[in-house]
Amino acid sequence: MNQLVTTSDGSHTIFVPEINEHYHSIHGAVQESEYIFLKNGFNFCKADPINIFEAGFGTGLNALLTAVRCIKEKREVFYTSIEKYPLADDIIRVLNYHLFAGKEGQYIFDRIHESEWNGMQNICGNFNLRKIKGDLTSDHLTGCYDLIYFDAFGPDKQPEMWSRNVFTKISGITAKNGILITYSVKGDVKRNLKSCGFDVHILPGPPGKRQILRAIKK
Prior knowledge:
The protein is α/β, with parallel strands linked by helices. The chain has one domain: Rossmann fold (3-Layer(aba) Sandwich), CATH 3.40.50.150. It has 6 helices and 11 strands. An 8-stranded mixed sheet has the order 6-7-5-4-8-9-11-10, sandwiched between helices. A 3-stranded antiparallel sheet has the order 1-2-3, with no helix packed on it. The mean pLDDT is about 95.
């Protein structure tokens, strides 16, 4: 059974005993997402409107933080996320991410999770969300995206998610000069991205993580 865990910055993550893995860093779930996906992904991408594709919807934390940021900065976002195993409502209800997302945090978080699957919907302000219930390894992907949040479970836990086959699909939906941001810097990940048309750059990581990876589509 999945277990709720409080990380070092006070925000929650979820531990999955079956694969011995947490959804986020135990050194700070919100801190990690803000640093990797917002600071080094969203802030780095200059497209406006910005089309984002997320591999691994999970708890919806990245979507929430992106929604808050796009409203604050008045950037229009079309956010698509794919998830094979959506979390149960009883777990979602106890997550405390709204405490880190401003006065509208709870409302936005609820809207994100209450939105129907498989259709683009306006959540709030300039933030539009499409959640796809599907399998990244086998489903056909469509669209053209300026920014990829690659936030699957780690390569040692779900190697099929980090395969050349998957990155070929991701490359096919990434715009020229589009950005892929992820936390893994493993050799196979770098090699697969390079073979699929990305320039790979290694960046300093957040607390508890020495390095992260940002790739640019050639």
